[in-house]
Amino acid sequence: MELWLGSEESAKKYTDLVKAGPPEGWKPLVKCSAFKSQYGMPAVAQAAASTAIIKITGTLIAGEAGWMRMFGMIGYEEIKAAVYEVMTSDSYDSVVFYVDSPGGAVNGLQSTLSAMTQLAKMKPSAVYAANACSAAYWLSSGAGPIVADELSMLGSVGAVIQLRNVVKAMEEEGVKVHTFKSGSLKMAGNPYEELTDEAKEHYQKLVDANAEVFIKNVAAARGVGADKLKKSVGDGRTMLAKEALQNRLIDKIGTLSDALKIVQTDVKRRSRAR
């Protein structure tokens, strides 16, 4: 069981990959620069002038994606490595985060957001959100002005926990599992027992608490009242750019070029101010 800030489809895909394990014959390559993943897919790409583009594409998971990168996953540690590379390099005077993700795991999110926010304070930064839902939107909210095109999917502010139950299937196979535990909520949610009302209440409180933190953090980053944000998008809806703009989830409807112009203009402004 893992708390998830993303779609049901992305959660299932990640769970299935974890169960399946790496493809036969797969071997990790020698660790390389943050600028390239194990499969040669650049995490950071040089853009116009001296602006870096950090690509956050795929379902967000804890740690490093490793072999799962082939199946559309990206690890928070990989994102942080790219952030620190840009943060410490004199080759880049600004950055655009290119985000195309349905969201993903909670574990690792806040430390990654902290690194992105720190970079945004050091160098002109902006976000181009091709798609930024749930955890991916949370990351985007603290990384500078957000630009999205008209058909970008955004929002999905909220949390989810999925628990699979195989009690009936086990019974049909004539298998019975006996569990001995020290407390009523120990191992609550395991697939071999029906959920008690107490366990359901516990998990709902857990989800609600995480959603509250999500809303509070996004509200602070976007300069919107938490109550107002909860009322407008707290139901977990996804939306296109026009509605996102109306709810102050983004700053501009545009393209990647517009995001690049924002940071490059800021670079020139800061240069003149020196």
Description:
By secondary structure, this protein is α/β, with parallel strands linked by helices. The chain has one domain: 2-enoyl-CoA Hydratase, Chain A, domain 1. Helices cover 41% and strands 19% of the residues. It is built from nine helices and eleven strands. The protein has helices at residues 8-20, 76-88, 109-122, 135-141, 167-172, 197-222, 226-233, 241-246, 256-273, and strands at residues 4-5, 44-46, 51-57, 59-61, 73-75, 94-101, 104-105, 125-133, 146-155, 238-239, 252-253. A hairpin with a 4-residue loop joins strand 2 and strand 3. Helix 2 (76-88) packs parallel to helix 3 (109-122) and helix 3 (109-122) packs parallel to helix 4. The N and C termini lie far apart (52 Å).
Describe this structure in a few short sentences.
The chain has 274 residues and is of the alpha/beta class. It has nine helices and eleven strands. Strands 2, 3, 6, 8, 9, 10 and 11 form a seven-stranded mixed β-sheet that branches. Strands 1-7 form a two-stranded antiparallel sheet.
Record the SSE blueprint:
Blueprint: E1 4-5, H1 8-20, E2 44-46, E3 51-57, E4 59-61, E5 73-75, H2 76-88, E6 94-101, E7 104-105, H3 109-122, E8 125-133, H4 135-141, E9 146-155, H5 167-172, H6 197-222, H7 226-233, E10 238-239, H8 241-246, E11 252-253, H9 256-273
Parallel strand pairs: 3-6, 4-5, 6-8, 8-9, 9-11
Antiparallel strand pairs: 1-7, 2-3, 9-10
Helix pairs in contact: 2-3, 3-4
What are the key terms here?
single chain, 9 helices, 7-stranded mixed beta sheet, 19% strand
